[in-house]
Amino acid sequence: MSKSASTAPIVLSCGEPAGVGPEIAVKAAQALDGSVPFFWLGDPRHLPHGARFAEISDPAEAHHVASGSLAVLRHEFHALATPGVPDFANAQGVIDVLRHAVALVQTGQASALCTAPIHKKVLKDGAGFAYPGHTEFLAHLAGVERVVMMLACPELRVVPVTIHIALRDVPEAFTPELLEETIRITAADLATFWGISAPRIAIAGLNPHAGEGGAMGDEELEWMIPLITRLKGEGFDLKGPMPPDTMFHAAARANYDVALCAYHDQALIPIKTIDFAGGVNVTLGLPFIRTSPDHGTAFDIAGRDKADPTSLIAALKMAHEMSHAKRQKDHG
């Protein structure tokens, strides 16, 4: 899509300044060359030496910076940054940038939020950050109780219904209420942000072979099938529970728009196998668009010009496409 001054640009939060975030932001601006309007919210002192950037005083000015240059809306931090060496003095600045970025999206000055990686332990130790991660903090800022994590690439969208918990805790956490809530949020956001009015949702079984008629587990028979049947009666296009080991090859993927999985690895192994570098983390259930590259701060390679911007570029492109779909939906 071409750059358009009629739409607000995307805000890219700086993330952990000692990580690869500043470096991949510069690389993304060079690669996108103005095709996706965005600006970086952070301290320009944290950008790599010699980086091409242009400071702006208003988000709308991001449309007018030279192609290949990173538009920067200054948000000053307490300290300089040394790549690979996080500084607790900058922890509060990272949190404040996220607050600032959300405010820009909520007021319409930005069309979407793309977040560079943060380091949760640094924020906790340096600023008393009380949230498990980005997603929970953004939900708090938006006043939303329940959000859903989706990983997406051109070939696959997956949603882990339970996320960062031990495998032994999954059967207790994976409840009818949680699965139903996840289905409803996922279907609503695919309609709003992807323009898929009646998304086809595949649901993986919890057990091998989806329980095989109760021989390998009974969750599918006891409550998954009745829940899916009830929601299909409401008009949801649902498939499952499906055997997890046969639903991710190319022919199977052609039959659904998103796959809901019972636990973290059930969802993330297939998408990272299909597109390791290009996967995008999308938060569903927020009142605004939020995407993120699917990797961490990578302190071990920060500042060494080795960081791959592929996932960030994909995240920015996806945020742009989602905002375009939402505009089309809003305007009929």
TrEMBL record:
MF (Gene Ontology): 4-hydroxythreonine-4-phosphate dehydrogenase activity; cobalt ion binding; magnesium ion binding; NAD binding; zinc ion binding
Q: Name one GO biological process term.
A: pyridoxal phosphate biosynthetic process
- Binding-site list for substrate: 134-135, 272, 281, 290
Q: How is the cofactor bound?
A: Binds 1 divalent metal cation per subunit. Can use ions such as Zn(2+), Mg(2+) or Co(2+).
EC number(s) given by UniProt: 1.1.1.262
Q: Which family does it belong to?
A: Belongs to the PdxA family.
> Can you name this protein?
4-hydroxythreonine-4-phosphate dehydrogenase
| Biological classification of the source | Bacteria, Pseudomonadati, Pseudomonadota, Alphaproteobacteria, Rhodobacterales
User: What gene name is given for the protein in this entry?
Assistant: pdxA
